[in-house]
Amino acid sequence: MVINVLLLLPLKAMTKLPLISMGGCDMVQKLILDFFRRRLSQRPTAEELEQRNILKPRNEQEEQEEKREIKRRLTRKLSQRPTVEELREKKILIRFSDYVEVADAQDYDRRADKPWTRLSAADKVSPMSLGSSSCT
After folding, report:
1. What pLDDT tens digit does each residue of the chain (136 aa) get?
2. What would the DSSP string read from start to end of 20-44?
3. Do 35 and 42 form a contact (C-beta atoms < 8 A)?
């Protein structure tokens, strides 16, 4: 009867059981070992995990080799990049100021200025009266 009750208990409950004698301790230890053996036997094998693309089939050396190859390829691409001067000569890299006249402007905080707070009632109505009356 005790064994059946212990089989139904979760692992946390089994570890908190009061042990009366050494024989009871051995029995609980055996039950815990059996529980873990059952759980391990239900785990999928490495081959099954590889088939489901959960486990990578290659080893550490192959991964390091692949990383080195990617690093080498990217370094080569970076070294073959054209310079800024070459891009400007080919008209690929252009500046805004090359085509538009840019004047110096005074820097000031535009966030503090709220012109709509200074409008009078007449100013607020005047744009409405200038537009076409489509409300008729």
Report:
1. 444 445 555 555 555 555 455 567 888 999 999 999 999 999 998 889 888 988 877 788 888 999 999 999 999 998 888 888 888 888 888 887 777 888 888 887 777 778 778 888 888 887 665 555 555 4
2. -SHHHHHHHHHHHHHHHHHHHHHSP
3. no
Identity of residue 51: Q
Nearest to 35 by CA among 53, 73, 9, 69: 9
What's the rounded Cα separation, in Å, for the pair 28 and 50? 36
pTM of the model: 0.30
The alpha carbon torsion through 109, 110, 113, 116 (nearest 10 deg) reads -170
Cα 136 to Cα 57, 78, 131, 132: the distances in Å are 77, 67, 13, 10
